Amino acid sequence: MTVHGLVLAAGAGSRMGTPKALVRGADGEPWLVRAVGVLAAGGCAQVDVVLGAAAEEALPLLEGTGASAVVAADWAEGMSASLRAGLRAVAASDADAVVLTLVDLPDVTAEVVARLLRPLPAPATLRRAVYDGRAGHPVVLGRDHWAGIAAAADGDEGARGYLAARPVDLVECGDLASGHDVDRPPPAP
User: Fold this and answer.
1) How would you class 88 by CB atoms within 10 Å of its CB: exposed for 0-12, middle for 13-18, buried for 19 or more?
2) Mind listing the domains of the chain with CATH numbers?
3) 77, 95, 106, 128: least buried by Cβ within 10 Å?
4) Cβ–Cβ under 8 Å, residues 102 and 7
């Protein structure tokens, strides 16, 4: 089984005040680079990143990471557009499953990804990280589901509706991370 990683990082980050693909952590590392590293270290053979807003500025950040970039021209339609672009990219690969994550999850670690990949996912797998019982990301999507997810994705919902209508293996990861996405910049000191 081959598992690829997929980072959704196309949004404008209106609440953040800048596209999240350009945000840097307190340590100076771009969230984009961190997300790629987390997926790779967690067990993904290849990582694709979906860009949209500020794609030209974000592309140089990926140099040296080994990740491939996919630009979603229709990114402004919402997360569903980014998800469809990413799934099209991985569909052209040999991947049996993809680990989908968001760029704005700075406390999600490679250990979360590794836990989601045990046991190794198959093409029929649907698996989701939960944090103290709260569903979140990353999500493991087996190849058998990609076309259905792409067809059902709408607006800013992504795969939420598709996953809600099917049995999904939930993997508790609250001991490893909070899984909270960061939507606003930290308050000024």
Assistant:
1) middle
2) 3-172 (3.90.550.10)
3) 77
4) yes
Averages of pLDDT over runs of 10 residues in the chain (189 residues) are 96 85 91 97 98 96 97 91 96 96 96 97 97 97 97 88 96 97 70
Closest C-alpha among 73, 83, 103 to residue 161: 83
**C-alpha torsion sign, points 47, 52, 54, 55:** positive
Beta bridge partners of 24: 30
Q: Are 7 and 35 in contact (CB under 8 A)?
A: yes
Separation CA 168–CA 8 (nearest Å) = 21
The 10 Å Cβ neighbour count of residue 95 is: 26
> Quick one: tokens of 95?
């991947």
Nearest to 186 by CA among 4, 25, 34, 30: 25
